[in-house]
């Protein structure tokens, strides 16, 4: 019966589309209860969208589609999924609050060990003490298989058999990696979990500041200002900014963080220029390194910054990299970034309870450059899961990516000439192959967002 109703609705939609202007009579109002949301999306896009010229003619569009499907029909080929539409009151999904990567157990193609790669502070996983670099070997006394993997994502309490990585010498005298159990953990039930913008920070030996920054979130600007003062008081001269999990956020935060990091004599200089469509040229403007933003914080007056990157690093994070480059040395350690060089803005409808985020402008640095649509290539390529012994909590000086940055700072690692990046699939000494990675759904907005 349900399928018949759906088919009937689709048939009515098709008939309605063919008769909206039948006999020269405008029948849009008659069908507005079904087409209103899409008509609202269409009107905003034609006025605000950077590539509004690429939107198809009205007569070629189906206004009976769901909002996300309709948006896909009208965006430009230049829009690589940057524009989005969502319900106004989207909520986080239940989760245990950790990311993991599965590896086949040597000699057993059907069972896996799960390497924990990130733990959200305050999540069920954090409450029970799970840490990045630990292994889950069994769930509820059973090996992890394709059928039981779902037990790692959400649900009730789980009993976990935990393991740790070490090396030992085999009978042939060769060193090999092994994972051995060391105890159990009782994972609490899943619940809606929100990530934090700043999961770790420190001042390391030698006066090196470290900041893991997961999102350019305006709600955390006061904490960012507090930390800038903390780094200043600790006489930080070198700085490692960890953006490996940062998929973007608010442009206001980019301006603030750039002002904190930049050389003091560059305050007041142009940070970026925003260029809108021909319809919205009056909105074109420049952003500066604005010392008025530093109330309660400090400028660190750095000449160089080391940024840890991954394929997740995108949007606002890439804007920061691009806009700092004309003024200071930016050393990228990790992997090529995503490549998202445009900005979106939010338009909400209380009537339809949806929010539309179309691309509205291009963002250039002070040299007029925004040529990173394929991402920024790392100056020193690092696979963060290459060596299991170095998969450690964020901020640990021995963690793979951070230790590489520290090696560049102290001179023990020399930056190579640009060359192709290594295979992203880790091949550690255990010769275990990664078969699947899983990430919790982030609660932060992606991309580069203008208020």
How would you sum up this structure, described in words?
The protein is α+β, with helices and mostly antiparallel strands. Among the domains are: 97-152 and 156-189, PDZ domain (Pdz3 Domain, Roll); 200-342 and 359-418, 2-enoyl-CoA Hydratase, Chain A, domain 1 (Alpha-Beta Complex). The protein has helices at 2-19, 32-48, 67-74, 124-127, 221-233, 251-261, 316-324, 400-410, and strands at 84-87, 94-95, 98-105, 108-119, 135-139, 142-143, 158-169, 175-187, 191-192, 200-204, 208-212, 238-242, 248-250, 270-276, 285-288, 304-309, 329-334, 342-345, 347-349, 354-357, 359-365, 380-381, 434-438, 447-450. The strands form five sheets. Strands 3, 4, 5, 6, 7, 8 and 23 form a seven-stranded antiparallel β-sheet that branches. The protein has a six-stranded mixed β-sheet with strand order 10-11-12-16-17-22, covered by helices on one side. A six-stranded mixed β-sheet has the order 13-24-18-21-14-15. A hairpin with a 5-residue loop joins β7 and β8 (175-187).
Structural class of the secondary elements? alpha+beta
The mean pLDDT is 88
Distance between the termini: 45 Å
Oligomer: single chain
Beta-strand share of residues: 25-35%
Unreliable stretches, pLDDT < 50, 5 or more residues?
Answer: 1-23, 423-430
CATH-level-2 architecture of the domain at 200-342 and 359-418: Alpha-Beta Complex
Approximate helicity band? 10-25%
CATH topology of the domain at 200-342 and 359-418: 2-enoyl-CoA Hydratase, Chain A, domain 1
Number of extended strands: 24
**Sheet bearing the most strands, described?**
7 strands, antiparallel
Shape assignment: globular
Indicate the radius of gyration in whole angstroms.
25 Å
So, the CATH homologous superfamily of the domain at 200-342 and 359-418? Answer: 2-enoyl-CoA Hydratase, Chain A, domain 1
Number of DSSP helices?
A: 8
CATH class category label of the domain at 200-342 and 359-418: Alpha Beta
Domain Tail specific protease: 208-381
Biased composition (Acidic residues): 418-428
GO molecular function: endopeptidase activity; serine-type peptidase activity
Protein name: Peptidase S41
């Amino acid at each position: 019966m349900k399928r018949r109703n759906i088919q009937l609705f689709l048939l009515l939609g098709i008939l309605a589309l063919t008769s909206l202007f039948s006999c020269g009579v405008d029948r849009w109002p008659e069908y507005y209860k079904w087409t209103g949301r899409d008509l609202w999306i269409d009107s905003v896009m034609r006025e605000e969208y950077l590539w509004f010229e690429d939107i198809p003619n009205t007569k070629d569009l189906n206004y009976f589609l769901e909002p996300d499907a309709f948006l896909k029909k009208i965006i430009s080929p230049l829009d690589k999924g940057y524009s989005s539409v969502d319900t106004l009151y989207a909520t986080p999904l239940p989760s245990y609050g950790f990311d993991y990567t599965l590896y086949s157990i040597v000699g057993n193609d059907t069972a896996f060990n799960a390497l924990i790669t990130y733990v959200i502070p305050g999540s069920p996983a954090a409450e029970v003490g799970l840490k990045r670099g630990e292994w889950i070997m069994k769930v509820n006394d059973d090996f992890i298989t394709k059928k039981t993997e779902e037990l790692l994502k959400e649900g009730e309490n789980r009993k976990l058999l935990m393991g740790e990585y070490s090396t030992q010498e085999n009978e042939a005298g060769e060193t090999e990696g092994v994972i051995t159990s060391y105890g159990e953990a009782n994972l609490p039930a899943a619940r809606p979990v929100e990530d934090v913008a700043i999961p770790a920070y420190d001042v390391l030996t030698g006066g090196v500041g470290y900041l893991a920054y997961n999102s350019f979130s305006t709600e955390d600007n006061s904490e960012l200002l507090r930390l800038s003062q903390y780094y200043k008081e600790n006489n930080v001269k070198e700085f490692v900014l960890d953006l490996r999990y940062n998929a973007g956020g608010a442009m206001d935060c980019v301006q603030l963080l750039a002002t904190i990091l930049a050389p003091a004599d560059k305050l007041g200089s142009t940070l970026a220029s925003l260029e809108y469509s021909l319809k919205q040229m009056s909105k074109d403007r420049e952003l500066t390194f604005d010392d008025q933003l530093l109330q309660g914080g400090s400028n660190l007056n750095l000449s160089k910054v080391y940024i840890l990157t991954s394929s997740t690093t995108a949007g606002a994070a890439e804007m920061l990299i691009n806009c700092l480059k004309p003024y200071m040395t930016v050393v990228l350690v990790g992997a090529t970034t995503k490549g998202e060089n445009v900005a979106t803005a939010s338009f909400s409808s209380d009537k339809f309870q949806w929010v539309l985020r179309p691309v509205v402008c291009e963002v250039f640095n002070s040299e007029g450059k925004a040529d990173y649509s394929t991402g920024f290539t790392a100056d020193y390529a690092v696979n963060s899961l290459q060596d299991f012994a170095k998969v450690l909590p964020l901020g640990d000086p021995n963690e793979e990516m951070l230790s590489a940055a520290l090696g560049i700072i102290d001179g023990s690692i020399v930056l190579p000439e640009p060359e192709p990046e290594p295979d992203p699939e880790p091949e550690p000494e255990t010769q275990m192959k990664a078969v699947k990675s899983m990430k919790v759904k982030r609660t932060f907005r992606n991309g580069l967002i203008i208020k």
